[in-house]
């Protein structure tokens, strides 16, 4: 398959191109579906050598998403057993080809995210939302992604997707041992320029998630 120009190809053409790779991945007999997703393979050497700024705020803080991969704790880049390394590489490539790593401000209602979400369902039929959150966290950070998702939950068009992504994000936080207090402090350490009511909603939703989880 010939290489694809990555700048301004239509989203559908990109999706078809990537689906060809997906078909290969699905039908390769040697693929081990239990292999963990890798977030380190194929990283640009220049990015790997740069010091990634953990204090840089993204998304709602000025409306700009950080165009570098965020320097997040190892626990936040946990391995996921639902994707093999080849599919994980395709997922990350699609994310960048669609320029989602460069999106400004609100991203949840964009056709690019919908295209990527549809592709992720084909790449990962076990935990596609968890894989999406893992990749998005890499670029936006926990704080900005939580705000993107919370704002989109009221949208008729993407509310269901946002709710599913929030559940996946909260599950990651719970596995890391986060509490409502630690998440509240995280958001306070990286305030955005809009009202703090959104952050309160995130904390309240996470509190409800933990309560439900602990009562099972």
Class of secondary structure makeup: mainly alpha
Integer average pLDDT:
75
The rounded distance between the terminal residues' Cα atoms is 49 Å
Along the chain, the helix and strand elements come as: HHHHHHHH
- Rg, please? 17 Å
Query: Which geometry do the CA atoms define?
Result: globular
What percent strand? under 5%
Total domain modules:
1
Largest beta-sheet characterization: none
Number of strands: 0
Contiguous helical run count:
8
Helix content: 40-55%
Low-confidence stretches: 1-8, 29-80
Keywords: Signal
Signal peptide: 1-33
Protein name: RxLR effector protein
Q: Which descriptors apply to this entry?
A:
single chain, 216 residues, mainly alpha, 0% strand
